[in-house]
Amino acid sequence: MTEPCALPAPVALERALLTTLPASRVAFLGSAVVRAAAGGSSRLNCATWLDPDDRQDLPSRVARIEAWYDRLGFPARFRLTPLSPPGLDHALMARGYARDEEVVVLAAPLDTLPLPDGPAEIAEEPDEAWFAANEEAADRSPARMAELRAAPSLLLVPDAWISVRSGRRVAATGFVATDGVHAGLAWLATLPSCRGQGLARRVVLAGFGWARAEGARWGFVQVETANDASLALFRRLGFREAYRYGLRTRA
Fold first, then answer.
1. pLDDT per residue over 170-202, tens digit each?
2. 205 φ, ψ to 5°?
3. Domain boundaries, the chain
4. What is the CATH code for 107-245?
5. What is the pTM of this model?
6. Phi-psi category of 191—alpha, beta or left, where left has phi over 0 and alpha has psi -120 to 50?
7. Is residue 1 very low, low, confident or very high in pLDDT (cuts 50, 70, 90)?
């Protein structure tokens, strides 16, 4: 039996994530990347370390990051990945941080995925029908919608906005962007009345099919551990767990 190929290293996927899901404000503090947008999505409004050996003066650096978020009026939030320095989680817990959701990063080689298995629309930019369907399907807050609407103007890499219809109505949506090698899929959502019809699978395969044609070799997604339906979908398609990360938010 052929052994599965090794997945990309966490540092490669973390860099691809920062590229394919850009935030409007970014600062570095050593290897810590501090990002902020409109205060909606936890993934766009958090600090993430990219080097586990970058561990000096953690309490003072955490305090400095907290001050940056305080000026914005946002809660300080940190992502704890395999690249986080030892001691960071302890430092956050000592400062009263709460544990938020845990997220699985899944990846798969694009040449192993099935071909798109149904009609899907692929656009260079999202239109109002895309935004309306995604907002309704995911029940997004105004802050998250502001971040979503800002995304097309922030991206520097090739991207595609996927729509799948049920009848005349856009019923499922998603987004894919590629840094050249890795393609990240995000904002996957299906209207509640249209779930269970395989529409999300069509979005995923259409998006990653586009990325494969762009030259990308790997696809990756971030899925909360509580989202059983999405985890099952991607695992059926052959995606494997690359790593997990946890979110910590100051109470």
1. 999 999 999 999 999 999 999 999 999 999 999
2. -70, -35
3. 10-105, 107-245
4. 3.40.630.30
5. 0.95
6. beta
7. low
